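Module 6 notes. Inverse folding takes a fixed backbone as the condition and produces residue identities as the prediction. Think of it as a translation problem where the source language is geometry and the target language is the twenty amino acids. Below is one complete input and output pair. Work through it position by position during the lab.
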C-alpha cells in the first residue's frame, strides 16, 4: 500500500518509515532499511525511524550502531519501543550491568 503512496509524496518521512515497516515485515530487510534511512534523512529528529533503523542495524549484527540508534530514538522522543529494543539487546549481549544502569535512569 505505502509503495504506491510514496510515489506521490517521495519527501514524506512518515511514508518512508511506514513503507520500511511494511517491507521489514515481509522479510525484505535490505529495502526496508533504505526507507528507514531515508526517513531519518528527511526528519532527523523523528524517534520512530531511529528505533527502526536500530532494528535494521541489529539484524545486520551491527550491535553498537543499533544501541546508538535506540539511544537516539529515546533522546529524540522517549519512544517506548526503543526502550524495549535497547534493554533486550543489552541483555542479549550479556551487558547486564549496562542494562541495569539504563533501567534505573
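Target side of the pair, the amino acids:
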Amino acid at each position: 500500500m505505502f509503495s504506491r503512496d510514496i510515489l506521490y509524496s517521495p519527501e514524506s518521512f512518515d511514508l518512508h518509515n511506514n513503507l520500511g515497516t511494511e517491507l521489514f515485515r515481509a522479510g525484505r530487510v535490505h529495502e526496508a532499511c533504505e526507507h528507514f534511512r531515508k526517513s531519518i534523512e528527511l526528519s532527523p529528529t523523528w524517534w520512530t525511524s531511529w528505533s527502526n533503523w536500530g532494528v535494521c542495524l541489529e539484524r545486520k549484527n551491527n550491535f553498537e550502531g543499533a544501541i546508538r540508534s535506540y539511544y537516539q530514538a529515546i533522546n529524540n522522543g522517549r519512544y517506548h519501543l526503543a526502550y524495549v529494543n535497547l534493554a533486550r539487546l543489552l541483555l542479549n549481549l550479556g551487558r547486564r550491568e549496562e542494562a541495569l544502569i539504563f533501567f534505573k535512569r
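Reference fact for the lab report: The mean pLDDT is 90.
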